[in-house]
Write a structure and sequence with these properties.
Jelly Rolls, Cupin_2, five-stranded antiparallel β-sheet, metal ion binding, single chain, metal-binding, 123 residues, Cupin, mainly beta
């Protein structure tokens, strides 16, 4: 068996992202899922683009603030302590709107862990 404790503040933030992203997957030694911690200031979005995943399910747990998730049908407001789940094939764009008062912090989990799975969505 293997156990690890990861202090997300010690994981370096990924460069060239629209908001702060700390990739926790490798630090935790995870192979079957992706785990990321995001901090988005007002006006910042979490993904690089409005997108969907072919295979991966995603879950966003809001640690602080309010996360807004745009979908083709509506924009969801996800409050602190709540979870937003996305099934494969469903487009979404998570963000913190420009008129927000505070940053939003989110723990994002995706499974299975796949790379190159995201497809851009143009509404």
């Amino acid at each position: 068996m293997s156990y690890r404790v990861v202090d997300s503040t010690t994981v370096e933030s990924a460069p060239d992202r629209p908001c702060e992203l700390r990739r926790l997957t490798d630090a935790a030694g995870l192979e079957q899922m992706a785990v990321n911690r995001f901090r988005a200031e007002p006006g910042e979005q979490i993904p690089l683009k409005y997108h969907s995943h072919e295979q991966q399910e995603e879950a966003f747990f809001v640690l602080s603030g309010t996360l807004f998730v745009e979908t083709p049908e509506e924009t969801f407001e996800v409050d602190e302590g709540c979870l937003f789940a996305v099934s494969p094939g469903n487009p979404q764009r998570a963000h913190n709107p420009e008129n927000a008062d505070d940053p939003v912090e989110v723990l994002a989990i995706g499974a299975p862990k796949v790379s190159g799975d995201a497809t851009a969505y143009d509404p």
